[in-house]
């Protein structure tokens, strides 16, 4: 492997490590958002969202850099598995643990995001029900607006 290719490979591995760290940071933020929503500490959401937006921008920049480096290494449009198949034994032993760590953090991120989204949707629904009750609406056991609601029974079709 020539000097230039070695340098590009080192940059590529550094980017993979940064992607892994950034994915872990976003997963942590999602977990903290879920915890805050569960504990009804909604006042923390703004700071979590701002931190998450910054991390997502960083992730996008790193991904663009990874794609450029992949292209320079002749791995354009290849998956991580395909890169490992194509890499020499030294490259394979270098990249395999990095790809595994990244994959683990991306799975953690997916799980954290799903949990956070589910909890936040539950809280949003609870807020909608509370607001509806303040407006005189009632809800059935499934959380849907009751058609026998006192507020609905007061409505009549009138032509003026």
Summarize the amount of helix as a percent range. over 70%
According to DSSP, the number of beta strands is 0
Separate helix tally: 5
Question: What is the ordering of alpha helices and beta strands?
Answer: HHHHH
How many whole angstroms does the radius of gyration measure?
25 Å
Strand content: under 5%
Could you list the spans in which at least 5 consecutive residues all have pLDDT below 50?
A: 151-156
- Mean of residue pLDDT? 87
Globular, elongated, flat, extended or rod-shaped: what is the shape?
Answer: elongated
Helix/strand-derived category reads mainly alpha
How can the largest sheet be summarized? none
Q: What is the terminal separation in angstroms?
A: 86 Å
In short:
The chain is an all-alpha fold. The chain has helices spanning about 5-40, 45-70, 80-85, 90-135, 150-155.
């Amino acid at each position: 492997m020539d000097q230039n290719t070695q340098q590009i490979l080192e940059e590529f591995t550094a980017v993979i490590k940064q992607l892994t760290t950034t994915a872990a940071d976003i997963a942590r933020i999602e977990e903290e958002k879920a915890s805050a929503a569960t504990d009804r500490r909604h006042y923390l959401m703004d700071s979590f969202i701002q931190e998450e937006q910054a991390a997502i921008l960083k992730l996008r920049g790193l991904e663009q850099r990874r794609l450029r480096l992949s292209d320079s290494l002749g791995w354009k449009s290849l998956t991580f598995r395909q890169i490992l198949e194509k890499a020499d034994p030294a490259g394979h032993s270098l990249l395999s643990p990095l790809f595994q760590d990244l994959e683990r953090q991306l799975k953690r991120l997916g799980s954290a995001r799903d949990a956070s989204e589910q909890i936040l949707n539950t809280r949003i629904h609870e807020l909608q029900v509370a607001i509806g009750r303040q407006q005189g609406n009632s809800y059935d056991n499934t959380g849907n607006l009751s058609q026998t609601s006192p507020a609905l029974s007061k409505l009549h079709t009138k032509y003026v």
